[in-house]
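REQUEST FORM: STRUCTURE PREDICTION
Request ID: SP-0412
Submitted by: Lab K.M.
Chain count: 1
Length (residues): 150
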Amino acid sequence: MPILTIPTQFGPLTLWEDDSAIVRLDWDGDGTDDTPLLVEAARQVQAYAAGTLTEFDLPLRIKGSDFQRDVCAQMSAIPFGETVTYGDIAKALNQSAQAVGSACGGNPIPVIIPCHRVMGAKGLTGFSGKGGVETKVALLRHEGAGGFLI
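STATUS: Completed
RESULT:
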C-alpha cells in the first residue's frame, strides 16, 4: 500500500492510499511514495496546515461498518472552525452519544475527516491521534475554534 509522510506543525502525518482512495492518516509511518493521489493529498494537507485550505476534496474510503461511515460523513460535514457535540451527531443518526464517541475514536482519516471538531456535552474530550488532546487543541486553535478553551 503506497504511503507518504509529510511534515506539519501537528507532527509528521502519514497518508495511506489503497485502490485510488485515501484510507488512512496517522502520525506513524515513514513513506516516500509519490503517487498522483498521495501528492495531491499531501498538497491539500499542507495547504490546510498553512491556513489556505478549509475543505478537503479527496477520494476517501472508510473501512468499517455502515455506522462508522455514517459518523464519518457527519464529521465531514462540520465546517472549518466550527464544532458539534457527540450528542448532535447521535441525534442526527438516532444513536447513542457513546456509540458516536467510539466511532469518532475509530476514525481512520483524522484531520481530513475532522473528528477534532467533535466535543463532549461539557466541552473538550480526547483525541485518538498522536499527542491526544493537545493535538486536538492545536487543530482547533489552528481553525480558530479554540475560543472555548480560554
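NOTES: The beta strands are 3-6, 13-18, 21-26, 84-85, 118-119.
Reviewed by: T.R.
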